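As agreed, record passed on underneath.
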Amino acid sequence: MSARAVPAPLAQLPNALTVARLLLIPVFVALMLSAEGGHSWAAGIVFGIAGVTDQIDGYLARRWRVESAFGKVADPLADRLMIDAAVILLFAADHMPWAGLVVILGRDIALMLGYKFAAPQGYDLQVNIVGKAATWLLYLGIGFLLVTDRDTRWPYWIFWAGLVLAVIAGVQYAVAAWKATRA
């Protein structure tokens, strides 16, 4: 890896944003638990901030050439935990279909178990454009679900598009890991 493009203190910003995103998860959960029917502008704003910082921290880490082993694990973990918490809480509020809950949680568990198996064998997960697009659409769709009433249908289209891309990305990651560990 080439030398970083920013001074050392600034180089910590991407990881600091990831840690902040992790710290927002309990805030988000508390706001959702105090909301009625899974509808909360405050929780939606916190969720939106998490989605925006996800894009910023990854962009800065790559642009400034300060990608780290911590960031490569913590960044996707923060995304998965925030999205999983949102899906679980929306499901509990009867604002998320069971299929969305099962697919999101199943995919995330499969990815974590797969990474635990593949990483010790030298596999380095590289996020692809399909995975990034899936995360963007999931953040967007879930964010809109958080701030709309149960009867509002259009956010589900965004969510389902993100979910389809998330499954495709999961399959792509699994195939790439399988090939890398067999080589």
Observations:
- Residues 8-182 form a domain with the Four Helix Bundle (Hemerythrin (Met), subunit A) fold (CATH 1.20.120.1760).
